[in-house]
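Hi all, long-time lurker, first post. I run a small reading group and we've been trying to get comfortable going from sequence to structure in the token notation. Rather than ask abstract questions, I figured I'd post a concrete chain and ask someone more experienced to write out its structure so we can walk through it together at our next meeting. Sequence below, copied exactly:
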Amino acid sequence: MSLISSVYRKGTGRLKKGLFLAFEGIDGSGKSTQIQLLHKKLQEAGKPVCSTCEPSGGPIGSQLRQILTGRMKADSRVIAALFAADRLDHLLNETDGIAARIEEGVTVLTDRYYFSSYAYHSVDVPMEWVIAANAESRKVLQPDLNIFIDIDAATAMERITRNRFHRELFEKQSLLEKIRNNYLKAFELFKDSEHILIIDGTRTPKEIAEVIWNRIEELIDR
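-- Answer (accepted) --
Happy to help. Here is the structure in token form:
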């Protein structure tokens, strides 16, 4: 039996689209933990679900991972453009594109989406440029909910230092402070056209998960 065989709109015979949920936050915010908890909760509720992340596992995403870990060098503008290209491929590729999965009725959880680009890349590149570069992805698919787990840069660095052996390109406290501020600026810019949930990331993982689930239940039932 197909994973999505039971996901039909009641009384219509039409397949119900899956939700698209984007998790956002500076490095060390706890996004990965919350994605795992929500994935499990949705499975337990009988909802078809998959989790993914950016950079993707595709060819452009693989190149980006080499840049982020210091194995390759690239200009900030090139990095921003590569992320925009990887995002479109992540959405539209024929193998496991996000857009097709959502059309099939699968709820997709992504660790980062275009708000990450707005926040991270506008440290070095004008935010207007980054927004324009990602306009096609936003046109193809906007999240049903952007979930921002908010922590300060000092807390983030404490967690990163404690839990990781190697730091990536953006994992410096001064940069993370700018990135957090850029997130808040971007949320303000799009407050009338995006669904955004901001959660205090210093709360316990269980408390954060409960806040997220309460909001997701509203989306499931609508």
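A couple of things your group might point at:
The longest strand covers residues 145-150.
The beta strands are 20-24, 49-53, 107-111, 145-150, 196-200.
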